[in-house]
Specification:
- With about 300 residues, the chain is of the alpha/beta class.
- It has 15 helices and 7 strands.
- Strands 2-3-7-6-1-5-4 form a 7-stranded mixed beta sheet, with helices on both faces.
- The longest helix is centred in the last third of the chain and has 21 residues.
- The chain binds zinc ion.
- The site of zinc ion (ZN) has 7 residues, from α12.
- The site of zinc ion has 7 residues, from α12.
Amino acid sequence: MRILFLFLDGIGLGLADPAINPFIATHMPYLQQLLGGQRLVAEAAPLHNQRACLLSLDATLGVAGTPQSATGQATLLTGQNVPAIFGHHYGPKPDPEVAEFLLNGNLFSTLIKMGKNVGFLNAYPPRYFETIDSGRRMYSAIPLAVTSSGIRLKTIDDLRAGRAISADFTGGGWLENLGIPDTPVLGPFQAGKRLAELATEVDFSLFEYWLSDYAGHRQAFREAQALLETFDQILGGLLATWDDQEGLILISSDHGNLEDLSTRHHTLNPVPALIIGADGLRKEFTTNLKSIADISPAILQFFATPG
Ligand SMILES: [Zn+2]
């Protein structure tokens, strides 16, 4: 039994308004088929069908202000209401307090202690490691939790060997924007299949996608649509390859942003928990999911339950 957590930064459940919400304005056939013809918007949740559940999760966690990535992701990774503990939302990258919180134990380190095989599927380009090593760049919450748990970040060699996925899913951005020659570029459907195959090699895996949050901050409607079209193909490849009896795919986020391009800021919208897999596996997993603080406990409970 396994879980693939596909983390999409800055994806909320918004209004069904094509003028501001690219989830309405973009053709996403695989996602719509999965949701029984519905779009990924607030009014679609809760939804429960043969293959998937869609729940709406609170990302504000009862704390004033707009949710931010450092405290939101720390909440996702620890199961603690981190904004409530510190009294505010904070981000995008962890300050020393949030960092210390993550270093004291997180989803990855706990699963490893439980004897589970854990994979973090993102590949990072050489420049990323250079800027981290030189102190010019700080880890964001997820790679901080990953590396502090003793997991090595995947590199360009892993990407070339088919053992990792680039931040844009396909590798096209590494070739064209980063100018890294010999980057293998996958079609998005193929990249979705690769994601499923890599997830099948471990008990728990996570992939972090953050271009969604960037496009939201830029209020880039056409860019958002292009990202969502790519994502839909990723989902198609993933669904074609995933064995529902063998585990769950969880798609969720830390806060809203992309679903409301009338603002360049994060939103107060709930975030989706889209859970794909056999009905019996989904039922227990979704029982207590109300906010993003409930995700980590649900994952740990899934792996603690025998069978
Ligand atoms: Zn953001």
